[in-house]
Amino acid sequence: MENVIKSIDENSPLHAHARPGDRLISINGNRILDVLDYKYFAYDPHLTVVLEGPDGARREVHIRKREGGDLGVDFESYLMDNPRSCANNCVFCFIDQLPKGMRKTMYFKDDDARLSFLLGNYITLTNLSPREIERIIALHVSPINVSVHTTNPELRCRMLKNKRAGETIDTMRRFAAAGIVMNCQIVCCPGLNDGAELDRTMRDLADMYPGVHSVSIVPVGLTKFREGLYPLTPFTREHAAETIDQITAFGDECVKRYGTRIFFCGDELYIKAGYDIPDDDFYEEYTQLENGVGMIRLMHTEFRSALTLSDEPDYVPFSIATGTSVAPYFERLVAMAKHRYPKLEGSCLRHRERLFRSQHQRHRAHHRRRSHPPAQGQESRRAAFHLAEYAAPSGDGFSGRHHARTGDGRARCAYLPHRAGRLRPVGRDERCPAGGEAARPRRRADGIL
């Protein structure tokens, strides 16, 4: 009895007709099985609603409301049904890489088309029945988010460890033909679905445009809890750069052919490759924002805009705790704020993640520290850096390089050092060249992550 009413809003058109504990049976003669049926059939302004009381007695009520207005009813279950779990055993599944002892919900693998439409969850389509496929088309449930990974049927079956995984590419083509909009993702695994396989996948998905509206390509995430799992390797700096170049080149072709890029790399790939984050126009509508695509750029754009409109701060000292890989981007925002308000006291605290970090990663970082200790005076020079005005034409410090000075007065192009001093403006004649205006990302000069 998942469609049992839990509470009714005071202003609900059903307030005088329904009670908590009643069960919603139908709307305008349509059986209500779950939240999709409810939201679709409750859209009209004139409704005939059938309710069933706890005693099994049914009654019919007629209500009027604003078209598209909510009925103001909460149910015992958000989905009005049991959530659908994943039928796959993906070789890259992050949930399989979690340690023991975390909260129960962390281990539930959802693969529910309703959650994709309502909350933006990614689904693989492998557990959809023919009836559910027809219902998505009939109700025009759009947009939905699809985890594709590869359009090679055999490879998709191997990667998802599901014999039905290859069939769902045809399901996507049916959705596209029916006008269902799909935003897709590819979890890119070196040696599996990269290189030539990635080219094939991008071509196949581009052929489904405009049904396939956008595609994000994100690097596989690996933790130290992989005992007994499929052997996967992380992206190297060089391979991340090659993959970005490959995807950007294909995106350039899509811009010429369709007027949109379609394919976007996750921010993590740019950080891994040491590439600049693309500019604001590159990300178009930021459709894949919640999948980690363009987050850094949008954060900067919105921060910069808010800073121009901000009131005088109260100058309470503050600190921002952040991960190591994204710390430089937060440090640049702090530098921008200090440039506008020189009395501002703020800093970023870098936290090195240890729960999921693999033994290999920890050993490699330790080896670098032991093998390459700072040269004499390096730490003092690094601490003496003065954060400077940004050199890119837009003045954003993300598309171009930062200009920094060492304590001895020498100027050089650099990204924010780990330690930073006060902000100081640099004359226009001292600035470093910002580079070209092309959309293709550029490798950062100094490699500081």
Tell me what you see in this structure.
By secondary structure, this protein is α/β, with parallel strands linked by helices. 29% of the residues lie in helices and 17% in strands. It has helices at 35-41, 113-119, 130-139, 153-160, 168-177, 195-206, 237-258, 267-273, 295-309, 327-340, 359-371, 378-383, and strands at 5-8, 23-27, 30-31, 46-52, 58-64, 73-75, 122-123, 144-147, 182-188, 212-219, 263-265, 318-323, 346-351, 387-388, 402-405, 411-414, 423-424. The strands form six sheets. Strands 7-8-9-10-11 form a five-stranded parallel beta sheet. It has a four-stranded antiparallel beta sheet with strand order 3-2-4-5, with helices on one face. Strand 9 (182-188), helix 6 (195-206) and strand 10 form a beta-alpha-beta unit. It is globular, with a radius of gyration of 26 Å. The N and C termini lie far apart (53 Å). Residues 362-449 have low confidence and may be disordered.
